[in-house]
Amino acid sequence: MSVTPESVQQLLSSDDYGDRLRGVNQLRELDPAIAFEMIQPATNDPNVRVRYAAVSQVSSLGEQDRQVALELLRDRLLNDPEADVKAAAADSLGALHLTEAYPELEQIYQESSEWLVKFSILAALGELGDLRAFDLLKQGLSASTELEQTAAISALGELGDPRAVSLLIPFATNPDWQIRYRVVQALHRLGTSEAQTTLEQLTRDEVVQVAQEAKNSLSTM
């Protein structure tokens, strides 16, 4: 059975949340302009799984109208009661590079007690590439979970501000090799002489993956 706007709308209008969820997923098979119009009400669906799926998909459909996407995602980031929907909104804002939402991302990072929301915001800030995020990412390096710290390290690399190098160097000796691995990738992106010195040290890391990544990084600097 072929997927049409009419068949998808029938699913989206169903009283059964499973049908509505299928409808959101089938929007991928429609023209993006049509799909973006149809997905908008689903971002405010009463069922959390439907909202999550819709908000996540705005990351690919939002280019159809960036202003509308900004308003939808900003609303879910600020007002959704569920942490995973807030996190999906942050992810989509980052994917669409909607720097206009930076103040709200910072606000929710400071207010939220949910590690998933904080993690997603830190990761989104790297994609946004907005230098206003530097101080917030610096704060993220002191987060209570290693996942948040890892996201902050990666995001500082993506941001490209050379001030990050001195903040990242202490993590080059972190006991968690996955954090050291992320440090290698971030320092490679930042590319300063100080970063290069630390990468040379990391070529002798006891974990093969870290040492090899450091060698690969140096070979392309």
TrEMBL record:
SUPFAM superfamilies from the UniProt entry: ARM repeat
Entry annotated with the keyword Transport: no
Pfam families with a match to the protein in the record: HEAT_2 (PF13646)
Keyword Nucleotide-binding: no
Keywords per UniProt: Antenna complex, Phycobilisome
Record PANTHER family: PBS LYASE HEAT-LIKE PROTEIN (PTHR12697), SLR1687 PROTEIN (PTHR12697:SF39)
Name of the protein this chain belongs to: HEAT repeat domain-containing protein
